[in-house]
């Protein structure tokens, strides 16, 4: 999978959503050598989209490379940024993975854990489409904000 086909069309309205804009920011932040300079958002986010054909090319068992781990971190960082925007409190993401791609993704607000996901087969991390990526993030965001709303005193610690 050296060449990644762009699975989304340029000009898609999904690129105007807050989450996708934040994902583009996160991907650009990972680019310490300027390799992504001038790249359009659809090309930056293409690795997150795993079509059935692309998924079939990935072995069932494998260790994630650093680029894949960085994409997982970018996904959870983007969710944490949106939590901060919504509730005004600092959200801290923590991704803990073994070299085999198993682990846990947490986001805390103060002393409150607002997101806790078990991560498996991280070398196959991706979504069927950008809309599925956004929908999954929106679900996590809604649950996290509901937890912050339910326990504001713990979130403020």
Tell me the radius of gyration.
16 Å
Beta content comes to 5-15%
Describe the main β-sheet briefly: 3 strands, antiparallel
Taking pLDDT < 50 over at least 5 consecutive residues as the criterion, the unreliable ranges are none
Major sheet: arrangement of strands:
1-2-3
> Which secondary-structure class do the elements indicate?
alpha+beta
CATH A-level architecture: Orthogonal Bundle
Shape: globular
Query: Which range best describes the helical content: under 10%, 10-25%, 25-40%, 40-55%, 55-70% or over 70%?
Result: 40-55%
Number of helices: 6
Order of helices and strands: HHHHEEEHH
The CATH homologous superfamily is called Protein of unknown function DUF269
Count the E strands. Answer: 3
Mean pLDDT: 90
Termini, distance in Å?
45 Å
What is the CATH T-level topology?
Answer: Putative cytoplasmic protein
- Output the CATH class name: Mainly Alpha
| Number of separate structural domains | 1
Brief sketch in words of this structure:
The chain has 157 residues and is of the alpha+beta class.
Any descriptors?
single chain, Putative cytoplasmic protein, three-stranded antiparallel sheet, 6 helices
Description:
- The chain is α+β, with helices and mostly antiparallel strands and 157 residues long.
- It has a single domain, classed as Protein of unknown function DUF269 (Putative cytoplasmic protein).
- Helices cover 45% and strands 14% of the residues.
- The protein has six helices and three strands; from the N terminus they run ααααβββαα.
- The chain has a three-stranded antiparallel β-sheet.
- Helix 1 (18-29) crosses helix 4 and helix 4 (66-87) packs across helix 5.
- The model has no long low-confidence stretch (mean pLDDT 90).
